[in-house]
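tokens incoming
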């Protein structure tokens, strides 16, 4: 039985989806600094810098001030009366100077410096991966558009070949098998063009969503394949 499609296979227009229209209206942001993974790595560097400052601050003396206020009573018998209560208020000041720590502070600083260097290297690696991913996305979009343009010509040639095969068959010059072969080639070219149109639209949406996509292994981010 015949199958009726809601969208023609040779239709390269994006489906009317309200959530995708604003994205495709903007140019793709390929800046590495705007990638979520790069921003996350940059915040990691800031956190490690803070940990290094905390480790270095252990050399400074620590001053503590505490105060306690209360009313106490010691009745001879029964419950105390109001006049039996006395005020008890104490204030204490403490000073702690790190003179002999057994190398603990120096070790904490070495660990903090190593963590900071690791965070900086991770940031640089993530930024380079984001730049590579952006170039790959641009090349993928350009390649998908060229493939779609080439498939247009292939489908047009297959359509023309099928029209000629129909005339030849109607005039008795060719066989029914040749006509079926031309029809099969036409359908294959249409399917190839539909796939090329789909790949081009996925590349467009991927480029629009690039700042929000995570980086995967090899510096290539991905989105779902269910985009029309």
């Amino acid at each position: 039985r015949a199958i009726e499609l809601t969208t023609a296979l040779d239709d390269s227009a994006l489906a009317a989806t309200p959530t995708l229209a604003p994205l495709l209206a903007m140019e793709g942001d390929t800046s590495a600094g705007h990638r979520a993974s790069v921003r996350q790595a940059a915040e990691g560097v800031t956190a490690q810098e803070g940990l290094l400052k905390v480790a270095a601050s252990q050399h400074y003396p620590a001053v503590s001030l505490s105060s306690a206020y209360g009313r106490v009573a010691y009745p001879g018998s029964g419950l105390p009366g109001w006049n039996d209560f006395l005020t008890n208020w104490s204030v204490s000041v403490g000073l702690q100077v790190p003179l002999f720590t057994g190398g603990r502070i120096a070790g904490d600083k070495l660990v903090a410096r190593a963590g900071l260097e690791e965070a900086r290297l991770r940031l640089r690696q993530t930024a380079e991966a984001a730049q590579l991913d952006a170039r790959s996305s641009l090349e993928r979009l350009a390649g998908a558009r060229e493939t779609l343009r080439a498939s247009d010509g292939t489908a047009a040639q297959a359509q023309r070949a099928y029209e000629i095969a129909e005339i030849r068959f109607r005039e008795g010059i060719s066989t029914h098998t040749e006509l079926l072969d031309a029809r099969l080639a036409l359908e294959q070219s249409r399917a190839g063009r539909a796939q090329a149109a789909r790949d081009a639209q996925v590349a467009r949406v991927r480029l629009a969503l690039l700042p929000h996509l995570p980086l995967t292994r090899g510096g290539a981010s991905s989105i779902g394949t269910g985009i029309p």
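note: Residues 40 and 212 are 12 Å apart (CA to CA).
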